[in-house]
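[09:14] KT: can someone run the structure on this one? pasting the chain below
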Amino acid sequence: YVLIIAGSDFYTGSPIFNSIAALRSGADLVTAVAPQRAADIASGFLPDIISYPLNKNLSREHIPKILQLSKKFDALIIGGGLKRGEKTFAVIREIIKKINLPMVIDAEAIRALAQNHQILKNKIAVITPHKEEFKILTGEAVKDEVTDRKIKVQKWAKKLNSVILLKGHFDVVSDGKITAINQTGSPYMTKGGLGDTLAGICGALLARNADPLQAALAAAFINGKAGELAAQKYGEGVLASDIFEFIPLVIKKWSK
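[09:31] RB: done, structure tokens below
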């Protein structure tokens, strides 16, 4: 069971991308906590998505109910499409601090985390930044070449005692000890939403008690390979939602 905290009145797609990617990766049930508009769009898009609508964008008043909800779940995905701002960041930090589930920390949750790394203490977390978010999280810019990214990702994964999955034209994944490169993907995978699908896949794997490093590595491979297959079909017009149908095919073919 995967709990998802995502979306805003403007970014309504993130809860959908997180949820369907998690379901297609084997999650039995997902619940998307999102503002009313985003929650309604998610449920209308696919009835398999259980939505918990908030009366407004994520705020402090929602924390008690979210903490209560979390007791029924096996993993948390947080950050995609949430409204950016210090009030939201403070709520995100409180949720991460008080929920003891394996979690995927993405997008706005990475920006929130940048202001207080200590809340990761004793957490099982996979952090999924792109290049800009990595700099916000760590204060260090990464170059485009492999060696620089491997060194910095491993260093910060060790410092934060978490798994970092740095997204890019190749993905770098490290738990601070082991560092690996994922090269699945397509040059057409630049569309919005493909980071959200990655988070959804990773959350589903964490929910079945996968080792965080292995979950991150598998999620990067699955997302990239599904994107490759979708790009073969649609070319430059490929959308993040096009990979949903290919996720189970990739898992079935490469699971061994």
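[09:33] KT: thanks! Strands lie at 2-5, 30-35, 50-54, 75-78, 103-105, 125-127, 163-166, 171-174, 179-182.
[09:34] RB: yep, looked fine to me
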